[in-house]
Design brief:
Strand order of the largest sheet: 3-5-4
Helix content: 40-55%
Strand content: 15-25%
Shape: rod-shaped
Number of helices: 4
Radius of gyration: 43 Å
Number of domains: 3
Structural class: alpha+beta
Amino acid sequence: MKIHRIVQMLGATTTSGKLASDMYDLNYKTYYSEADGRDIPISHMDFQHLIRAFIKVNDKANYFKKVSEDNFITSVNDLDVISAKDNLIRKLNEKIERLEGIIEEKDEQYDSSLQGYYYTFTEVPQDEEGKEFVKNCRKYLNKDSYKIRVKGQHLKKELYGQGRAYHGANMEDSTHMRVYIDTKRGDE
């Protein structure tokens, strides 16, 4: 039986012949029916459907109330743990900031301590002795901390004026070598 019929019948059984006025406004109140996928007026609901919907809504409300209460109790009990974790995170962040400051300071010291040119060896002749020297540098270099680069130096006289050394001399066009030993940084 539909709710609007039940309201009419119950109203007729009272001494005044009517129910409370909001019972007659149930046509304007809706309930979202998951089965129909739309809002339906409560007055058009079947009595059994209304009771089941009420139980469902009530169960959900009680569930969320219990979850909220449990979470509150848990959060009150865990307040000391949360406070300790927040304190630890704050201290760790302070340490990170301090270490980043030290690293930045060391980088500045390293950069400012470098005077002169970036190359380590210059005027290394491009002959057997010079090539042996570079080979031994590569052989005995601490490759975990340093890397080595070799560039050409001094253009061969027969190549002057050809524009071959505009961006630095190639090894094949050079009489000498410069050896750069660079400190590795980061993920190199």
